[in-house]
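Hi all, posting the design record for the shared folder.

TITLE: backbone redesign
STEP: 1 of 1
STRUCTURE INPUT:
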């Protein structure tokens, strides 16, 4: 189906946005009463949804949420709040996102009704070639200058503020500067991830992880004989990061992409202690954020809009939903039928994703064909009561380049932010530096880490028969992503749900499951997050082991056995999402944050 016009949602500026949805509260209350009456859904000890009347921000860190809430409270828009949130996230959650990374954003304008997307994905340097990672394993490529793409996040911050902000740009860095200079407490999550990477080194002095002395000194005790991670609760200060924020505050994005900071970024890439990269100041000066049409799919009367290529998010989420629309999922989010059907839809979506999706500035992707109603019906017809095994890609209608499937690759990291302001503007943004702590190098005098996004490209340029792989490395190309920032509208075209998650290629399943939990099972945003995850990326069917105090408890062994009886190869383990959900109801907003991480909801 074609992407909708950006003006498809009618303007209702004369009506308070939170009063436009009569009857929705009754649906939510009924769902809550049903849940309380059903023993399997009675999970009183778990995190509960937060309600507000006018505005809401949900992030993966309480300090970032507080920064966004303050901006909203003082009259800022969702775009203003995002800038403040991003400035703090890069400081307090440096393993997941930051100024040295990129992002995808879906923006909905509450006054005009327009929905658009911003592509701030990192780009390969101009000198990049198809054989960039030839002969390298993932770890060597990850921990190198070759993996660093040209960052997009600072330019996204500036562009969305210019287009949709209300508050002065300079005011949006207050909390980031205060925390960088005055200090903040290192979280247990960050400390544990530092320790986990350090444990993979041969010794303190012979390091691949945190090989960069600047990053090593910042995250550890700095001793070459006792290189332990700084413990949780340590007061962290980052003067260099404060200086970078001041540069952005005073000079805008130009202060990042040109001048002495750009020179420091390029030098950090080109002098990587493991394998030098080739990013230059010319690459930085040439970077641009691209505004693109959203990719949307109808699901049971709800319009689900997200980020198209170079992200596979909206296409894969849309395919999963479009396939499942042909089935009744039952009344149990963890019922064997619902899990089986979701896994099969995931297999089919990932088969198409791995063949067709790449940067549309370089490759012809059959975007409309992949979401064509008849095509998805034909894909749904492949599903039986038994697991289908590895799914093959289909042949959607429309034009596309002859390509070969991309081999399995590693994707990790990221953070997600969902915001709705008092004017009904909404932001869903997934922001990333890729793997934990990016490529491990901290820019001298910059205080932020470089990304390793270029490892999202296929390491092989062609298949064995010479057929090109769509997501191969090319100069100035943006690598394929799984990030799935999503905004959903109700049957009247009104804002209904803002969702998204970090989690590498599992993001697609996390996001799709959150939508199904709300639409099909009537759960509120926090309940939708608390449900244990399940998904299939065209391999094994993955089940999340219950986490006391975080997810619903359930008999995972019984579900595993029931799926195995249907032919599934089942794995059980940790599926660490970071979902941030905001739902619009008739008297305000209902939000949920993922306690698998450090998620927090704020607003009023």
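Okay, here is what came back for every position:
SEQUENCE:
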């Amino acid at each position: 189906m074609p992407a909708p016009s950006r003006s498809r949602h009618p303007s209702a500026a004369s009506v308070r946005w939170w009063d436009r949805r009569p009857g929705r509260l009754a649906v939510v209350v009924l769902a809550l009463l049903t849940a309380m009456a059903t023993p399997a859904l009675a999970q009183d000890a778990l995190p509960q949804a937060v309600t507000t009347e006018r505005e809401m921000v949900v992030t993966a860190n309480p300090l970032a949420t507080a920064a966004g809430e303050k901006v909203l409270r003082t009259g800022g828009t969702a775009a203003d709040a995002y800038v403040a949130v991003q400035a703090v996230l890069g400081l307090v959650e440096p393993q997941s996102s930051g100024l040295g990374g990129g992002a995808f954003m879906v923006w909905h304008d509450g006054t005009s009704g327009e929905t658009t997307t911003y592509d701030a994905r990192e780009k390969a340097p101009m000198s990049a070639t198809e054989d960039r990672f030839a002969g390298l394993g993932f770890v060597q490529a990850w921990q190198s200058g070759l993996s660093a793409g040209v960052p997009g996040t600072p330019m996204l911050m500036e562009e969305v503020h210019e287009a949709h902000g209300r508050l002065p740009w300079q005011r949006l860095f207050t909390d980031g500067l205060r925390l960088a200079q005055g200090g903040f407490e290192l979280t247990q999550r960050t400390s544990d991830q530092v320790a986990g990477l350090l444990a993979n080194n041969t010794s303190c002095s012979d390091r691949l992880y945190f090989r960069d002395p600047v990053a090593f000194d910042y995250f550890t005790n700095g001793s070459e004989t006792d290189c332990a991670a700084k413990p949780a609760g340590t007061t962290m200060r980052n003067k260099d990061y404060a200086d970078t924020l001041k540069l952005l505050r005073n000079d805008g994005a130009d202060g990042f992409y040109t001048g002495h900071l750009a020179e420091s970024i390029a030098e950090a890439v080109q002098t990587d202690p493991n394998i030098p990269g080739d990013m230059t100041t010319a690459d930085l000066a040439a970077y641009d954020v691209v505004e693109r049409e959203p990719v949307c799919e109808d699901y049971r009367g709800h319009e689900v809009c997200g980020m198209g290529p170079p992200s596979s998010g909206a296409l894969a989420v849309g395919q999963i939903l479009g396939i499942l629309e042909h089935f009744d999922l039952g009344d149990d989010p963890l019922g064997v039928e619902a899990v089986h059907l979701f896994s099969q839809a995931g297999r089919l979506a990932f088969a198409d994703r791995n063949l067709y999706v790449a940067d549309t500035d370089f490759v012809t992707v059959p975007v409309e064909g992949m979401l064509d109603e008849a095509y998805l019906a034909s894909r749904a017809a492949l599903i039986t009561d038994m697991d289908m095994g590895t799914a093959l890609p289909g042949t959607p209608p429309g034009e596309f380049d002859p390509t070969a499937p991309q081999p399995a690759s590693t994707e990790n990291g990221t953070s997600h932010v969902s915001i709705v302001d008092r004017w009904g503007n909404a932001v869903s943004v997934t922001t990333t530096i890729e793997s934990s702590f990016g490529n491990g190098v901290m820019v001298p005098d910059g205080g932020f880490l470089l990304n390793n996004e270029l490892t999202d490209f296929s390491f092989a340029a062609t298949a064995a028969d010479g057929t090109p792989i769509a997501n191969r490395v090319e100069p100035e190309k943006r690598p394929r992503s799984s990030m799935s920032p999503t905004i959903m509208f109700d049957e009247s075209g009104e804002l209904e749900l803002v969702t998204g998650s970090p989690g590498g290629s599992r993001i697609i399943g996390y996001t799709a499951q959150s939508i199904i939990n709300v639409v099909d099972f009537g759960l509120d945003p926090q309940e939708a997050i608390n449900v244990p995850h399940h998904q299939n990326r065209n391999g094994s069917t993955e089940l999340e082991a219950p986490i006391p105090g975080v997810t619903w408890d359930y008999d995972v062994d019984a579900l595993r056995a029931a799926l195995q009886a249907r032919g599934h190869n089942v794995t059980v383990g940790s599926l660490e999402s970071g979902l941030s959900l905001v739902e619009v109801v008739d008297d305000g907003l209902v939000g949920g944050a993922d306690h698998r991480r450090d998620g927090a909801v704020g607003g009023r």
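COMMENT: Residues 185 and 235 are 5 Å apart (CA to CA).
Let me know if anyone wants the other runs.
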